[in-house]
Design brief:
The protein has two domains: about 5-75 and about 120-260, Alpha-Beta Plaits (2-Layer Sandwich); about 80-110, no CATH class. Helix content is about 20%, strand content about 35%. The protein has helices at about 35-45, 55-65, 95-100, 135-145, 175-190, 215-220; strands at about 5-15, 15, 25-30, 65-70, 75-85, 105-120, 120-130, 165-170, 210-215, 230-245, 250-260. It has a seven-stranded antiparallel beta sheet with strand order 8-1-7-4-9-11-10. Strands 2, 3, 5 and 6 form a four-stranded mixed beta sheet that branches. Helix 1 packs across helix 2 (about 55-65).
Length: about 270
């Protein structure tokens, strides 16, 4: 039987969210669920990490395991707009956007289309990988409650709509950790005044059934395999959301797997 370990769970919900795919030309699409790079970026913002602090970002990337449960997929929406980009003038600095536009010799208009998710909700779970140098989960939970920088759901224009309410849980597996968080969230929702409940997304089931994980964390050869519980792979996919360098905004491919907590029928 696996020994108990600490998990940090938190809920990400907001009026708008966008989990960027690979950007090509004028199209800026969104994944249907949070990306690892965006979640770790949110954690880094809470901790106050500057983008140039490569060592701190590498510690999060290498030392933190992540599970993502989509509680509500949200409603997709497209934002079509234009951006005017005047030609630059050597050795000339503008005091305002108004001065730049007014004195431009030529305005280059760029067409852009961005995708967002409306009122999407996901519950994340974090844990320490072996030999992790990342901050303690209790420290991360405290900073999520009182973040250094504004927490955003993929883009700066998409702040959280509700506090993440981080909770550190000691449990033998991910399923029980999610169950403990759901029970705590249900009790917290019940205490809210009736006139505030319309602000909240629908509560997910108290028993987690399927989550997204990095494939390396669930392979039988992983030292965490037993600690995460009995997992049944459903779908494999590849995402470019592994952090390579925050300073240059570059990322690596990562294999992700949708797993189920449902027990096998041995009858």
């Amino acid at each position: 039987m696996a020994s108990e370990r600490d998990f940090l769970l938190a809920r990400l919900w907001g009026p708008m969210a966008s989990w960027g795919q690979i950007a090509v030309g004028e199209q800026r699409q969104t994944w249907t669920r949070p990306s690892r790079s965006a979640v770790l970026g949110l954690i880094a913002a809470a901790l106050g990490y500057e983008r140039g602090n490569q060592e701190a970002h590498a510690a999060l990337e290498q030392g933190i395991g992540l599970a993502i449960r989509v509680d509500h997929p949200g409603r997709p929406v497209r934002d079509y707009h234009t951006v005017q980009a005047p030609q630059s003038i050597a050795k000339r600095r503008w005091h305002s956007r108004y001065d730049e536009i007014r004195n431009a010799g030529k305005l280059n208009t760029i067409l852009s289309e961005r995708s967002y998710l409306i009122e999407a909700c996901a519950t994340i779970a974090l844990w320490h990988r072996p030999n992790s140098s990342a901050p303690a989960l209790a420290t991360i939970a405290e900073k999520l409650t009182r973040p250094t920088f504004t927490l955003c759901l993929g883009r700066k224009a998409s702040p959280l709509g509700l506090p993440p309410h981080p909770l550190v849980v000691c449990a033998p597996c991910l399923a029980q950790a999610y169950g403990a968080f759901d029970n705590d969230a249900a009790a917290r929702h019940a205490r809210l005044a009736n006139n505030l409940r319309w602000l909240l997304p629908a509560l997910p089931p108290h028993t987690a059934t399927a989550i997204w994980l990095s494939r390396d964390d669930v392979e039988p050869s992983s030292p965490l395999h037993a600690d995460l519980g009995v997992l049944h792979p459903r779908t494999y996919t590849r995402r470019r959301d592994g952090i390579r360098d925050r300073r240059t905004w570059t990322f690596d491919d990562r294999e992700e797997v949708l797993v189920s907590f449902e027990k096998e029928d041995n009858s």
